[in-house]
Write a structure and sequence with these properties.
CATH class: Alpha Beta
Oligomer: single chain
Shape: globular
CATH topology: Rossmann fold
Radius of gyration: 16 Å
Bound molecules: guanosine-5'-monophosphate, magnesium ion
Length: 178
Amino acid sequence: MKNDIKQILLTKEVIEKRVQEIGQEIDQYYQNREIIIITLLDGAIVFTADLIRNLAIPLRLDCLRVSSYGNSTDPETAPRILSSLKSDVRDKHVLLVDDILDTGNTLQSVFNEVTSKQPASVRSCVFLDKPERRQNGFKADWSGFSIPDEFVVGYGLDYAGRYRQLPYVGTLKPSVYS
Ligand code: 5GP
Ligand code: MG
């Protein structure tokens, strides 16, 4: 597994520190109002687990499964929402949490879907952002790190289902793809 990594972009320590900072910013923003976190499975699971342990505001957790890359590294243009929410988000403050904001198509479609249910507010928080790749105007309210247009794995992010458990974020050696 480790031998497949070409370069580490974000170490465990750097990630930990940044997640703490984002937690503080989100706490400050919501001022003890309760939020519903909607986390996008599967990629955001690791980030969400760390983020909620850095939040002091009251919160409840819900999950949405969205279609992913499958075994390729190309995003689907029309992401599909594959499950439904267990919570009633009407009049609630919703925080969408995803692993990475790439084209923006996934978060935009989830944002539209959630907004149609008349929540009090919808904000978004992503662990990584690839601004160069955006195909729409979607902007996250909180973002951990901006990274260049390279395919990364670790800290929840996978390639063909693997590498999610790596505590850092890195790129893969070309040999892994062949
Ligand atoms: P978007 O809809 O913004 O194009 O894509 C968002 C989703 O694509 C992310 O939630 C993630 O699952 C996947 N994705 C985008 N870039 C990467 C990447 O560099 N590595 C991995 N593992 N997944 C990515
Ligand atoms: Mg994802």
